[in-house]
Amino acid sequence: MTRRQNLSERFHPAYVVWELTLACDQPCTHCGSRAGTVRPGELSTEKALSVVKELQALGTREVVLIGGEAYLHPGFLDIVAALKAAGIRPVITTGGRGVDRALAFKMAGAGLYQASVSIDGLEPTHDLMRASRGSFEAATRAIGFLREAGVKVSANTNVNRLNLGDLEELFEHLRRQGIGAWQVQITAPLGRAADRPSMILQPWDLLDLVPRVIALKKKAWDESRITVMAGNNLGYFHPEENVLRSLPEQGDDVWRGCNAGKFVMGIEADGGVKGCPSLQPSYLGGSLTDRPLAELWETSKEIGFTRSRTSDSLWGFCKTCPFAETCLGGCTFTAHSVLGRPGNNPYCYFRAKTLRRENKRERLVLAEAAPGMPFDCGRFELVEEPYDAPDVKPPTPRELVKKHAPEVR
């Protein structure tokens, strides 16, 4: 079933991203949730299994288990098995550091359908971003173990100024590992990434990034039948938007607005529910410890905020954009992470190209630091300047992660 067909259905949480625990075995420098230790009041295995039944009743088709690291939750394998038994496709997104052969086969035995392994650059870059020596090798081994166990394997990459130069070589590495798909998205200034504004792409960097992703997408499919997918915060309405956004053999498609709270839902480890897992704390719509999931989904304004969204909510450049009615400001959590509220998103390829034709560009300048909570953000100011204005001297990779970063261990 295509995404276009999905949009004609009654709103329901078809695709759920479930943070089982905030415990993690890597102190990643770009982690939006600032993962490391468990959240207070994380759901027990018994409660999590009851949530599986609630998801089944709501018609959920796929659940992506995340953390922290989902496999660090004591009931991880039981939850995978319960999802499988409920007819819900269980998937994991993982850094892979603790995925050895034994765990990979246990995951497969429990019914795990697919694993997306996060690899954020070539070895030096990846290990710096993950603040863990050997992390790149561990993630690469995890792909092999999971494939050996019969789990479908894909990869995902957060792109920023630290790893922007790695993409083509990284694709070749991932291709050699036998992945079937690769998701590429940009690092939004959330959580620990918000503490490192020099790591974050400037809006004009999209003029370099997007054509390269399109070229890699064509190459990957034509040569190896690997699907390259653009994340929800990458792209928007350039001449090849349909190439960037479409999935092979499903026809042309374009960005059709944020689906948070329409067909997407996020569950946090303590039972908090949001329309999207990456949204800021102000979008929490209640807790599974207090109210049934169906009631939260149907009645919470914070969860269902996109269901009645129109172009009247847009401002700045997005308000004047010819694609405003369809795009509705792009990815909500990304726009909010930059300017403190949605409706005006400088991370837009069409916008960057439009300004470039006028010899202009927008620079993001940090005005207010993030307070230090999971999925928090600071606030940036947009400075319009001549396109050929000198860039700030690019920091070295180690300088990029040094400030506020744990030591690479």
Explain what the structure shows.
- This protein is α/β, with parallel strands linked by helices.
- 33% of the residues lie in helices and 15% in strands.
- It is built from 16 helices and eleven strands.
- It has helices at residues 3-6, 45-57, 76-85, 101-110, 123-130, 135-149, 167-177, 191-194, 206-224, 241-245, 293-299, 317-320, 324-327, 332-339, 349-357, 397-402; strands at 15-19, 62-66, 89-94, 114-118, 152-159, 181-186, 227-230, 264-267, 273-274, 360-368, 379-386.
- It has a nine-stranded mixed β-sheet with strand order 7-6-5-4-3-2-1-8-9, with helices on one face.
- α4 links the parallel β3 and β4 (114-118).
- α2 (45-57) packs parallel to α3 (76-85) and α3 (76-85) packs parallel to α4 (101-110).
- The radius of gyration is 20 Å and the shape is globular.
- Mean pLDDT is 92; it is low at 1-8 and 403-409.
Separation, N- and C-terminal Cα atoms: 44 Å
Strand content: 15-25%
Percent helix:
25-40%
- Put simply, the count of helices is 16
Derived structural class: alpha/beta
Give a quick account of the main beta sheet: strands, pairing sense, barrel closure.
9 strands, mixed
From the spread of the alpha carbons, the general shape counts as globular
Mean pLDDT: 92
Give the SSE order as H and E letters. Answer: HEHEHEHEHHEHEHHEHEEHHHHHEEH
Q: Say how many strands there are.
A: 11
Low-pLDDT runs of 5+ residues are: 1-8, 403-409
